[in-house]
Specification:
about 190 residues; alpha/beta; Rossmann fold; 6 strands; globular
Amino acid sequence: MGSALEGKVAVITGGASGIGRATAVRFAQEGADIVLGDLADGTETVRLVEKLERQAVFVRTDTTREADCNALVAAAVAEFGRVDVGVASAGIATAAGMSNVETRAAGGDATHVVNIDTDAFRKVLDVNVLGVMMTDRALARQMLAQAAAARSSTSPPAQRRSPSRARRRTACPRPASGCSPRSWRWSWPPPGSG
């Protein structure tokens, strides 16, 4: 049995390093093509993915800018025609982009709540909270549009208005695991119709 990611398209923010890079490489090992978004250069991650004989695209992305999040998803659609998986892993520990360990090693403790600058903390929140929300929103809009297109292209007009007459089939292998009704596809013709 193949991997659930075989032939899928994954959009990953923070893909130039750390968890994002590790996720991109693992997804490529499982057969996914990757679209990376990051402020840092993603060339090395692209090389690692391509070494696994998968395709990868890097898009410079500031996840605190909604236009960048939308452009990242648009680039995935332009390159691969769709988005199947999204991972919002862009994040920072300090406004300077250093980890807490690096900050302390440099002789500072600017990350301690007593010392942290409010604007610096706001930047961390913008990347780690608002950036994730805007990335997820851009991904969700695309995935919902794909699902709507799949439903409208596979269902006759009467069935779009009367879904109770069609056989419902979930795209999820385990419906009890939390699949949304938005992931349902209508199957035509109905069972027993010919």
